[in-house]
Each structure stands twice: as C-alpha cells, then as structure tokens.
C-alpha cells in the first residue's frame, strides 16, 4: 500500500498533482491491524514524571479529553453497518471497528498516565456530555465522518500543545503516538467523505461546504473554551489556535474532494 498522506497537493508550485488512490475497506483494515502492532514504547519505569506546576495547567483538560477518547463507539458502528449495507461494502464495518479500537487505545494510554500521576479519571464532563447528546442525531455516515474529521483536526493541535506543555517523557511519548495515528485517521474519514460526495451536484456541494464551515466554527470555539488553559500552556493564543485550526481543516477539506484521488473500479469495497 502506498504511504499515507493527508495533503493531496504537489509540494512544488506548478508541478503535477500527486493523487493517491482511494483505499478499499480491506486495505484500511490491514493498515489498522498493522498499526496496532507498531506502537511506540512508553518509558513508564520512572512514573508519570510530570511536575505539579505542569499538571496544574493541563490536568482538567486532559481528564476531559481522556474521557472523550473512551467512547464504546456503538452508535458509530451501527451507522457504519447501515452505510455498509446500503453501498454493498461489508468490509467497511471491520475498518470502522478497528478505527474505534485505536481511539480507545488512545484513551487507555491517557488513563494510565493519569493513574501514574495519581489523578482520578472523570466519569462525566460537560463538553463530552453535550457531544454524547448531540451524537444521537448523527445517524448518517456523512455527518459522523464530518464531525470526526473536525475533532481529529483539533486533536492534532491539542496533542501538540500538550506535548509542548510538559517535560514528562511518558506523556510526550503518548502524544507522539496519538499524533502519528491522527493523520491516517483524518485521511480515512476524508476518503469516506470523498466517496459519499462523488457525483454530488454543484448546488448540493456548495450547501454542504457552507454547512461544514458553520459547524467547524462552533467546534473550534467549543474546543478553545473547554481547553484554553492547556492550549495556552502549549503555546497557543486564541489567534494562533484559530489560524492553525483553519489551516489544518483546509487540508482536510481538500482531501475530501473526489478529484483529489485516483479511483479504483470499486472504491467503497
């Protein structure tokens, strides 16, 4: 399989556009299985290795984010099953199941760090609770994938900030692993959206793009309000966070375009 990338544009202005081939669900399942066995070693021997000062800046945010990473994914799985049945691609369900398992591993790694730092895990968080209510309305794969891409885009910035905010070798390595996983996660969801959007008319495409931008503003503001202390500890002002969020999401939007890919005979399976 070709190397994963999110950016589908050529690096040199004027050069030919490099268009990756859309992966089949079987290829994505193979990737997730291989990645599950290719984890970075986390140096836990010395304990959490975080100072009280560092912890004070990030702990509330980290506990909330850890809770969000531990969802059982049951609603997403049901949505994926309905989508797979509709398009005749049963292998997509397996790919989604493996994607969920990888997200849950992130949550468990963060949880183990909190345990080592003697910080109790939270069972409820306002932001997480609101999303769990909101997800009751996410019964279409297109809406799920769109929301997941936006959250993953913010996760790239969030974990980069957490990594900068601490000298803990354990937490920095956990962030390294999560950041390494997130770009393929975004590519996975962007490909799915490109498949869904393929053949969509211009008017509907414009309406879809407009609604996505409104949604992205809301999610960006919610992430900043809920996690601004940790983001600031990692070097983000609101201006910098806003600018970087839109730059990263711009890459994701370009990766959602059907024209960004070479299409195999059957892209969905």
UniProtKB/TrEMBL annotation:
One of its GO terms (molecular function) is oxidoreductase activity. The keyword Transmembrane applies. InterPro entries: Ferritin-like_SF, RNR-like. The chain crosses the membrane at residues 143-162, 203-225. Keywords: Membrane, Transmembrane, Transmembrane helix. This is Ferritin-like domain-containing protein. The lineage of its organism: Bacteria, Pseudomonadati, Planctomycetota, Planctomycetia, Gemmatales.
């Amino acid at each position: 399989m070709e190397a994963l990338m999110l950016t589908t544009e050529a690096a040199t202005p004027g050069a030919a556009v490099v268009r990756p081939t859309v992966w089949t669900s079987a290829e994505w399942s193979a990737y997730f299985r291989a990645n599950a066995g290719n984890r970075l070693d986390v140096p836990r021997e010395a304990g959490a290795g975080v100072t009280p000062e560092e912890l004070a800046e990030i702990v509330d945010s980290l506990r909330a984010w850890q809770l969000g990473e531990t969802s059982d994914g049951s609603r997403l799985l049901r949505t994926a099953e309905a989508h797979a049945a509709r398009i005749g691609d049963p292998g997509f369900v397996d790919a989604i199941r493996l994607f969920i398992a990888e997200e849950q591993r992130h949550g468990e790694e963060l949880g183990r760090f909190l345990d080592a730092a003697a910080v109790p895990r939270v069972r409820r968080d306002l932001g997480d609770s609101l999303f769990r209510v909101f997800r009751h309305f996410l019964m279409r794969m297109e809406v799920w994938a769109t929301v997941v891409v936006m959250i993953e885009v913010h996760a790239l910035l969030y974990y980069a900030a957490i990594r900068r905010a601490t000298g803990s070798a354990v937490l920095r390595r956990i962030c390294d692993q999560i950041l390494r996983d997130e770009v393929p996660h975004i590519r996975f969801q962007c490909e799915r959206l490109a498949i869904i959007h393929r053949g969509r008319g211009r008017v509907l495409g414009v309406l879809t793009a407009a609604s996505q931008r409104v949604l992205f503003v809301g999610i960006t503001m919610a992430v900043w309000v809920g996690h601004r202390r940790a983001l600031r500890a990692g070097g983000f002002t609101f201006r910098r966070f806003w600018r970087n969020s839109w730059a990263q999401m711009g890459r994701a939007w370009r990766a959602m375009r059907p024209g960004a890919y070479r299409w195999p005979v059957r892209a969905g399976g």
